[in-house]
Structures
1.
Amino acid sequence: MRHLLEMMPMRVTELAPSQILFVNDECLNLYGITRAQAKAVVPNDLWADPQDRWQIIERLNAGEAIGNHEAAFKGPASDMLWGTSKNRSEHVRVQEAAGLRPLRVQ
């Protein structure tokens, strides 16, 4: 399972306060940023239209699980990245989230 987690571009974010808890190397490469740069990224800044993210958050807060949602993201050099995402809300205590290896400078 760990192998899949590291191979697919993936990030885990908090809904509020909005910060990235985990990002793997494939996702960093896709967005064209370093791990150090990712520490300062606000998740809304990754979306081509941040309103799309807020619509997903509203649906998640209503208890909906979202699969195969297509959205546009900002890529390196301000190009557009299209992707599908699977979203679900997990209520996790901060201590448990620490197990996701929050962003760290290597």
Note: The longest strand covers residues 66-74.
2.
Amino acid sequence: MRYLTLFGISVVSMILTACISPNMPIFGAQIDYILAFMLAMVMMEKTMTPVFYCSGVAVFMDAFFSKAFGFYILQYLLTGLMIYCFIRKKNIKFGGIIGLAAVSWMIREWIGVILCFFMDAPVGLGLRIIHSILPGAVPQILVSMLVYYLIKKLYRHRFIWPVATFADWS
């Protein structure tokens, strides 16, 4: 049931990110629901499993929306790995959620800009920073906090936690 739920959350977040968010930009930026769900789930369970699921749906985004295969996969995999390495042994409070949401948004955007440079895609770096990255951080923080609240309610149920959480190793 856990993996089915993780897959369902990943697919819904992909649909929101790839289909709905481009048609409704907030402050000129497209909100990344995949990133928000991945951040919330990694913060809750402190495993890499949500990162792999979110990177898995990025394969479909690469297949349908990207000019180069691996464009979205690398963004989510590297950002998720950085998030996991930072919080795996920490308890994050309210201010930490805000900071992690902003930093993860900027890391993912910067990885996208770097990949665009490697693909020789025209990227106006100054315009991208002023019109997308910085203004998009505030709505991304708000969405990430809302998603964290919803995921926290979901993680109150035992079926969503990894089995090792409840295993008695003695």
Note: The chain has one domain: 2-163.
